[in-house]
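Hi, here's the filled form for the chain we discussed.

Project: internal
Contact: R.S.
Residues: 160
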Amino acid sequence: YAMLLSLIFLIVLVAAIVGFVFRHEIKTNFESNLNVALRDYNVTADRHSEAVDTIQRTLHCCGVQNYSDWESTEYFRQRGIPQSCCKSQDDCSEEDLKDPNKAKLKVFVDGCFFLVTSTMESKMSVVAGISFGIACFQLIGIILSCCLSRYITNNQYEMV
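And the returned structure, exactly as it came back:
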């Protein structure tokens, strides 16, 4: 049992170290995937488009760096900026969303990449605290299982 807990503890520790060391690559990869999701965005029920809409609605953002990122997409040429960028769903018409100058007043202008990464970084202290607490419990479990094993081994040859 101590070996199993030690193995799990080491796996979690290695994952945390790798995540910390490669955090810049993770950000770069996220940004490129977000750009691909914008480029391939469509109205059909595909997961990437739904994820983009959810991020834009939840974080009140639009595009990767800003709302003008949509201007280079095929979706913009056909339908304008998506409805998920609108500040108010009632005040956003398709004509407004096709004109970048009018859209600037009706959509969120901040990009999603900065908001997502800053939100993740602000929550990292909570994740680190929870992870540290779990690691402490694992270490206590490892120590107690080693003590139990030692106790069983020492008392194995006693007369009953």
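Let me know if anything looks off before we file it.
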